[in-house]
Amino acid sequence: MLDPTSVQRHDDRNYQRPDIQGSMSIQPPDNAQWEQALTFIAADRDKKAYSQLFSYFAPRLKAFGLKMFGNEQQAMEMVQDTMLNVWQKARLFDASRGCASTWIFTIARNVRFDMLRKKQSRKDELSADDLFFDGDYPEQEGTDSNEWDLWLLAEKVAPHFAKLPPAQRDVMEKVYLEEKSHQEVSEELAIPLGTVKSRIRLALDRLREAIDDPRS
Amino acid sequence: MIHAVKYHPTLELLEQYIEASLAPQVSLAIAAHLDLCPHCQRMKMDLEAEAGAALLSLPEAQTAETDWQQMLDFITAQPEVAVKAEQRQPFTLHIQNSEILLPASLKPLLQTKLKWFNLGGISTAKLAGEDQHNVSLLYIRKDSEVPQHTHLGLEITLVLKGKIYDESGCYGEGDLLINTPDHTHTPRTKSEDCLCLSVLTAPLKFKKGLTRLLNPLQHLFY
User: Fold this and answer.
1) What are the pLDDT digits (tens) for A121-175?
2) Of B5, B50, B57, B207, whose CA is between 20 and 30 Å from B93?
3) DSSP assigned state of B80
4) Which CATH number fits domain B114-221: 3.90.420.10, 2.60.120.10, 2.40.110.10, 3.10.129.10?
5) Surface of A (109-148) touching B: CB under 8 A
């Protein structure tokens, strides 16, 4: 928890609106900026930081809501509930767990779920907060393994490799075909190291499924 | 209670889960699997990160500036709410004469006393059911066999304790099995009791009472 007095005044701070026009990458333009905004909101309910965050996210959340609900009224209700949660619960945002955009997505997802449940007048025994837990799970013995890396050497991977989503394929090509380190790939593609790692994990999982579908 | 989980939801299913586009009862089974599976916890976070990135790259939807301003003014006039990060801890429950550690996801459904329905070595207790999705606990005593059955809907089974075997393999704690109407299987236990979470999507409507009578398993599982 931040001590509000430890945060400098930032009235003159200029939040640049990120330019995402023409960018093919799905990498967020500037999540660090939004992380900082959330920190200011959590610390001293900074309306200026909030209003900049709002003007960036609200129209995009609306686009998301229109896609999910298919109507203006529910989309706007989702935007308002989501952005209200962001305002009131900014202290729950934990940058070590993920980007600002990830956190806001999970709030919108939960709001949408609860809206649908409410509309169906369901008892709230199955609430979004329970079903889509967003905190730390208790530590368990690690089960991470690199065994699937070996599969990549197998010829049967090749046809599936081409079918990976482009963002994941780019990272995989650099790491496994060009043998670059995760750090090098991160710098070369100008994406955070965590994103490189998460795309590799997703791609490996996808390939694993494609190869022999052990998940059923 | 750690067992290396071998059977996971597919990525496609996890994607639908993180978008909340699955039936809530199916989401519950996935959430309980996540409680037991660090691998899928990681996948969930990664998929949510991708979904967040996709949100950022959506084009802005148009709304009058005054409407946005009104919403903004309304929100910033609201007080802060007291919040604290949640802890996710498993809990124990007394089931069939033993204390069993259960995933935190199931806690909201286990606040009331369970009513068990027994048939041979098998007991079931319904936890929730609506929209043609039924959630129940299935307790199978050691050396018992669930009579061969097929499903008219989807059957999702999450092993919570012990081991269960069928024609395709052995499933331990945390393993998630999904059977479609195409599968026929005869699950059985060996040397230990087994507790499972079972989520069934409803079969097509049984219009004839006879069909129901001819299928006692229907009563057991649904």
Assistant:
1) 766 578 888 888 887 777 654 444 444 444 445 556 777 778 888 999 889 888 8
2) B5
3) P
4) 2.60.120.10
5) 109-110, 112-113, 117, 122, 125-138, 140-144
